[in-house]
User: Fold these one by one.
Assistant:
Number 1:
Amino acid sequence: MDKKEILLNRYNIDPRAIDAVYSAENQLNSQFAEYDAIAEINQLKVLGAMQEHRLSDMHFNWNTGYGYDDSGREITEKIFATAFGGEASLVRTGFVNGTHALATCLAGILRPKDHLIYCTGKPYDTLEEVIGTRGAGMGSLMEFGITYDQVELTENAQFDFEKIKEKIKAETKVVGIQRATGYGFRPSISMKQIAEFVKFIKAISKDIIVFVDNCYGEFLDTKEPLEVGCDVMAGSLIKNPCGGLALSGGYVCGRKDIVDMVSYRLTCPGIGDECGLTYGQTRNILQGLFIAPKVAVNAIKGAALCGLVYEKMGFDVCPKTGELRSDIIQAITLGSRERLISFCKGVQNAAPVDSFVSPEPWPMPGYDCNVVMAAGAFVQGSSIELSADGPAREPFNVYFQGGLTYEHSKFGVLKSLDQLYKDGLL
């Protein structure tokens, strides 16, 4: 029995969906080869970092209590720093998600009367309450006297350098970049754009800190933001950096003086990064980091396939086929609540875990509207695993990402299209 027969007979996939996906796949061979070349380079970088710091089986043991002299924690943070081109890093299971790592980073750096500018427009929904542009405060940056501005990207998704320069003042301490799309509908920020941005900012003032939200972007280029001059970046361990194996956590990486400041916010002044248990997760985190270059490329291949399939179906997609990708996310404007739910139901039904569940919009913490989330993952919320989500509001964009293997991501595309056909929405 060949694979198409399995799809028809075992999974009852609509033949139109099968034809659409396999036809699109045949058009992406050269693009996939480029992604594979990136994965090979990043695999060598990660392996080199582990060998340079003499990773040993003894590092997979862990301490109790305060976590003093946890050699596994210490070597993990050295390996991450080297692999990502930083001087130091914090890699902690105590970060509950990427937003927590980003918030800790900003709160560790900024002081009352300092000025923060986001230069990629409105940040991801969950950061709005962290900054203080939405919500009741509860310890937001603005509540502590930090001032905030944001500058939208230009119509062609480039940095608006003129407007950024207008916003910069003597109190400006941090300028932020969100590399990924978030819940917007724009291309992700490329490494070339980031390098140009750093050059522009440092020409104005070398003291301004360039901060990058690197979520969904790790290992998709041969360089990371720190390697083109950024000062600090942060992200989630259950996205690209750990290949689906980390159970929880986040990371901060960059200049040592900045990472030290963030460590004092993570724990407290005087303690910093000297304490903190790993709870036996060192092996998972490092093994995940080891396979992450390949897993991230599997996910971006799935996103490219998803984009081409739905673009050929007549939907507005971002990024479009052939455009540079710097995150693993494929955005599609579905145009109706019914299609959004149907798409996510198809992705959920493609999952190895909770495949029998039907996702519905719900008030997810940190968002200003109901969100539909398909995520039948081994690690809850792990968006490097096959997943799809979107806010239940106009224009009903869905955001498809992940897949530990390309084949599973491809199956997710098949099931999403199949469900839309079965629900009579195409």
Note: The domain at 3-42+290-422 is CATH 3.90.1150.60 (Aspartate Aminotransferase, domain 1).
Number 2:
Amino acid sequence: MGNLKKRCFPQIDEIFYFNTLDNGLKVFLIPKKGYQENLAMMTVKYGAVDTEFTLNSDDKKVYPAGLAHFLEHQFFEREDKEDLSKQLTRLNADSNAFTTHQETSYYFSASGQFSQSLNILQKAFKSTHLTELSIKKEKGIIKQEIDMYQDDPDYKLFLGVLGNLYPDTPLAQDIAGDRDSLAEICKEDLEDNFTYFYHPSNRSLLVIGDFDVKQVYKDIVATERQFPIERSARIERSELSLNPIQEKGSLQMEVALPKLALGFRLRGLSSQSLLKEKLVIRLLFQLLFGWTSSNFQTWYEEGRVDDSFDIDIEVSTYCQFVIVSMDTKEPIAMASKIKHSLKHFTKSQDFTKERFELLKKELFGEFLKSLDSLDSLAVEFMNHLNGKETYFHYPDILSDLSFESVIEMGHYFNRASDISEFTIFPK
């Protein structure tokens, strides 16, 4: 298999093959015997936050918010007027794409004609086919998408607290941008950013399923070799500015109950293992506020919270935050209770080594379940590519976590996190 390398994880009976091709494309192959479908995902390290950067050391670039998301939509346009999704549909492949703050991913799943679909996906990254007419049409579609999200209370809640935590930064912007930034997007901006960020060296290709590893790898290499190797741009991304937070914010919408989001922004969190930090934070918040905790059970029985209670954790090289959100009749009281519980976490009756070990087993069970879903595994695998660390290292990292590490994280939160509240009140 040439330079294709192999990593084995006997504890979970998983392996993956990987290599970086001559043009810089990183390839990962995960064989799964007995699966009826195969999945391919191409992920570009380019997301909504990449609006300001320096090109080739001295060329400062600034672009409108929402450009990465717009490019994702326009990427499906093809020269022959049959867009990418229709080409894949003709081969009975289901395709989709999504943009996050830091990445853009394109993927498809298919039970037959997989190699042909993969060939189409790879070739699509060699050029764009943008026209003024298609861009104008897309602006109308995305404008409707933006307007739709403006009427979504849960989305407005999340964006509101994120804007409080990271004011005047790309994180405070909708991934799709707004009407003003949408109007600024032009053909030249889209073509330039495609050239800067869609280079093979800034992309990773993942294939999962029951396939011939040698043949699929051979096909991938052959397709990439059809195109000349072009020089990549040197991109220096702007660091996230930790501006002073806005401690509180609110708005009114058509909701039955108030919605509360309590955000915690971390400062100075640094580790060689982002997965480890995320797991420690998750264990801390699950111990204190998980569905099996006495806190949650008491609040639920008292009617203070319901099944909408959620904990969202983001730990990346760019940002680290936790958002606790809920529907509640008592947003002010619940914000106070959560902050008080975290401040005095060591006194909680739930904060025991026994529950810690039990939660570790639950997390391991969730991990094993994720391995059986092509979509879940693809997203998690791509999300956790950090140096030599991958999603398959999850069990070892989880097993090595100590109760003391969670205690340390609790003290760190109380010492170094910035806290903000955002509430949506009924009109």
Note: Residues 159 and 172 are 7 Å apart (CA to CA).
